[in-house]
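hey so i finally got around to running the thing on that chain from the lab meeting. sorry it took forever, my laptop kept dying and i had to restart like 3 times. anyway pasting the input first so we r on the same page abt which one it is
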Amino acid sequence: MPGDPQNAADGGGSGSGFTRSSGMNPGGFGSDGRYGTALAVYAALFAGLLGAAFYYAKAGRLRINESRRGLLISLLLTAGLCLKLAAAPWISGYRGDIRFFTTWAKEAAHGLGSFYENSSSDYPPLYIYILYATGKIVTLPQIEPFFLTLIKLPSIIADAVTAWLLYKAASRRLPFETAILIAGFYMFNPAVLINATFWGQVDSFFTMIVVAAVLAVTRRKLGWGAFFLTLSILMKPQGIIYSPVLLFALLRTGKLGPWLKAAAIAAVTTVIVALPFSAGKNPRWLYQLYSGTVNEYPYASVNAFNLFGLLGANYENSSSIYLLFSYHVWSLIFIAAATLLSGWYYLSSRSAAFASLSALLLISGVFTFSSSMHERYLFPAAALALLAYVYFQDKRLLWMAFGFSATIFLNTYAVYYGYTSRDGHVGFLLFFSALINIALCILLVKVMHDRSRRPNALSLEAALPSGAAVSLAPGRVPLTECSSIPRTCFLVPELPLLFFLK
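ok and heres what got predicted. didnt touch it at all, straight out
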């Protein structure tokens, strides 16, 4: 998979865990090593400034004129886009991945029907459409010099879209000052910046689809949830990790109709996306593509700062025995546990908003305790933690957003700049980040346990009938849950909330 070619170049470390790999050479698979210090300084400044901003917002000392709010969020997202687009051409990216994407874009432009026969790609079909468009655009002589920026552009735009989705969700439940800080948190997050603008990877695009799917489920739009979840799987096999969230929501309905509708939407979406690639192929070609991708790296860990990495099993075969079982069997046990816990708490609660917590537990639990994990697989956790905070306004979830952002950044930074090795040595970055990820997973289970025990916890937005419109009084709403929703209007203590049906 793209992002994985560094694996062929990681064997040159001295064993310290902080030695640049042999891939760090001009023309090699890794990055060129530039701007590492500047990026580290940026990350430190970001953490300090964002922490101060949230502190002042909580203390009520950050006030923004209401008439300027629309302009401010537009300026924030535009500034983020301009920053990333200005930096993108100067940063060569992770060279192995950039070469793959560049080659695939050119091959896709020659025709989707023959793409998989003529390329080395093991990516599912969805993102090939983006590469197809890129390959077509770059055929214009005046555009060709900007090929690198075009490769990065879809993910950079996806960063802004995800920040906007988080802002829209937050603006309905939180003070504007907090909502815009959440958008800024994601848009300027160093973990997000290094992935698309530096590395040139597409996890931002994938995360945008996952966030859209989870938002749809929290609003009980299960048809849309099935659509976006199917798109996520058609982009990356990791999308399967989030499928239990939709299954839990369907189980809660207790009806056959939503199951049939979701299955039909998933099937039609898959056929439409895959059809242009299917001419002359075995009907099972898509299954074989996924099967080959999933089995491509049979290792306990692939540079992931997780439990198996902490145990010194980086690039150790997943069939190797640790204690009673192989790493692969331990992985299956942990995946089952994460799925069961996620489902138990989701179904025990009465809040559709629990989908955000379930999705967060699934990705953080699978990444932290599963085999074959790559350094970037945890990437959606930062956005999902922010989304969960929006719904539940639990400070622990905000700390998780900070914590996951930090470990995602450190893991990506270490691999991008070559501070990893295959010899099983556990360096400080790996030790520190893996422990934080384990602690955050435990804390998340505690948060879900606490929240699921609250009776009659219904998300206000999820409880509204389909087609209902929400009108908020000038004051913002600190509560996101209540026990019942009347048909016309009611008062939340201290702040008026008016709900009008169309």
